[in-house]
Amino acid sequence: MSFLYDISRTIAPTLAVWPGDTPFTLTHTLRKADGASVNLTTITLSPHTGSHADAPYHFNDGDLHPSEMPLEPFIGVAHVVTVKRQHGGITPQDLASHDLSGVQRLLLHTWVSDVPDDEWPQDFPYPTVELIDWLAEQGAVLLGVDSPSVDRFDSQTLPCHHRLRQRGLFHLETLQLAHVPDGVYELVALPLKLARACGSPVRAILRSLEHA
Question: Does the annotation count 58 as an active-site position?
């Protein structure tokens, strides 16, 4: 029997967003209680609300939008690994106790997964360029983090965003891995087919792999 883990943050008006970004709002345009035939709502949100995939256009003019991104990196075998580092850059040495040879998709579980949806984790750990290069050498296609960014909070140059793109990896941010044991799973976290956008929310799930 396989098990499903929902690793998405809940999108609600109380969800913390990147400082200065658009918060999630929902309004009713029609209500059955007012005599309409249906309830109809309008939502406003940033493409980086909650668990999401960055599109390369987010940090590169003229690069891919979500509607143009390949789907293969966002579905397939993924390793979930707990990282004990509290702050600063995560390196391959932080993962030395795990067998990750040939890893295709790596999801990093840190203390940030324990932060409530309505709180902002400013001093979060983040991947390093060294880790990205190591992943690329393993043949990886995706890196997922539970933090709000694959770069340091105050970074202006975004070296890890750019190195991921240079090495052919896509990435997910703001995952929720608090209740997922370390191990190997099937990941499904497809971006919406959004034209011209800089990213897309995802409903990210992990399914345990069945063993004969």
Answer: yes
DSSP symbol at 161: H
* Closest to 81 in 3D by CA, of 39, 32, 135: 135
Strand partners, 4: 207
* DSSP code per residue over 88-138: SEE-GGGGTTS--TT-SEEEEE-GGGGS-TTS---S--EE-HHHHHHHHHH
The superfamily (CATH) of domain 47-208 is Putative cyclase (3.50.30.50)
Rounded to whole angstroms, how far apart are CA atoms 135 and 212? 29
DSSP 136-154: HHHT--EEEESSS-SS-TT
The answer for residues whose C-beta is within 8 angstroms of residue 93's C-beta and 6 or more apart is none
The backbone torsions φ and ψ at residue 89, rounded to the nearest 5 degrees and listed phi first, read -85, 135
Catalytic annotation, pick one of 48, 52, 58, 161: 58
- Tokens 């391959």 sit on residue: 92
User: Could you list the pLDDT tens digit for every one of the 212 residues in the chain?
Assistant: 679 999 999 999 999 999 999 999 999 999 999 999 999 999 999 999 999 999 999 999 999 999 999 999 999 999 999 999 999 999 999 999 999 989 999 999 999 999 999 999 989 999 999 999 999 999 999 999 999 999 999 999 999 999 999 999 999 999 999 999 999 999 999 999 999 999 999 999 999 987 53
